[in-house]
Design a protein that fits this description.
- The protein is α/β, with parallel strands linked by helices.
- The chain has one domain (8-227): Rossmann fold (3-Layer(aba) Sandwich).
- 48% of the residues lie in helices and 21% in strands.
- It has helices spanning 8-18, 22-29, 33-45, 62-71, 84-93, 128-138, 155-177, 180-192, 196-205; strands at residues 52-56, 76-81, 98-101, 113-119, 139-150, 209-216, 221-227.
- The chain has a 7-stranded mixed sheet, sandwiched between helices.
- It starts with 7 loop residues before the first helix and ends with a strand.
- 40% of the residues are buried.
Length: 229
């Protein structure tokens, strides 16, 4: 596994620097597809009314909000993130939801939850085996885990995607956010992270069962779904 080039506290500081424009950047840089990716990921996860879900690396809370619509008032969803600036935006956007500041490898919650989710978080976590252990602690036996992460397509699209990551996204991200280093880092993590099959294997080695990988938008992002033993 490739470790992130920054320690966790530096990653949190980076996200805090760009938190005010994070949502705008997501919409622009993904051409608005990130909204559809989250909704598809929730469908693949298969949670329903009354379920309880912990949403790690929740950022500004968009996935947390989408999950809350599915589980309804009888369910529970808790968003967890280590960046205080991102959580401040989440709490302003969705004041009726529950958000907790904490590390994804040591979540200050006991559970058990019916499911756990991570959107665009795994590549920023330096110890994936520890992540899978923590998720197994938080989720009940038979519960589900879902990861939504940016991945690398193959073939000609892969070349175009690489060009976008190297040449376009850092410049556009810097122009919109004013933080060049943050978007160079984010592009590097996409290029250096595990591919779709390697992430599936990491989940299996972490003790998770029935691991499925669902590529979206020609493999630009991938949904991984697994079951806790």
């Amino acid at each position: 596994m490739t470790r992130p080039p920054l320690p966790p506290n530096r990653i949190a500081e980076m996200f805090d620097r760009i938190h005010a424009r994070y949502d705008l950047l997501n919409r622009v840089l993904s051409l608005g597809l990130d909204v559809l990716w989250r909704r598809r990921a929730i469908r693949e996860l298969g949670v329903g009314r009354g379920d309880s879900v912990v949403d790690l690396c929740c950022g500004t809370g968009d996935l947390t909000q989408e999950i809350s619509k599915v589980v309804g008032p009888g369910g529970r969803v808790v968003g967890v993130d280590f960046a205080g600036g991102m959580l401040s935006v989440a709490r302003q956007k969705f004041p009726g939801l529950e958000f907790v500041q904490g590390d994804a490898l040591a979540v200050p919650l006991s559970g058990p939850f019916d499911a756990a989710t991570l959107a665009f978080g795994p590549r920023n976590i330096h110890d994936l085996p520890a992540l899978w252990r923590e998720l197994r602690r938080l989720v009940r036996p038979g519960g589900r885990i879902m990861s939504l992460e940016l991945t690398r397509p193959s073939g000609v699209l892969g070349w175009l995607h690489g060009f976008y990551l190297r040449q376009v996204l850092p410049r556009l991200g810097c122009w919109l956010s004013g933080d060049n280093s943050a978007y160079i880092y984010l592009c590097n993590t996409i290029a250096a992270f595990l591919d779709r099959e390697q992430l599936s294997e990491s989940m299996r080695h972490g003790g998770l069962l029935e691991v499925r990988a669902i590529p979206l938008s020609f493999g630009i992002v991938t949904v991984h779904v697994a079951t806790v033993p």
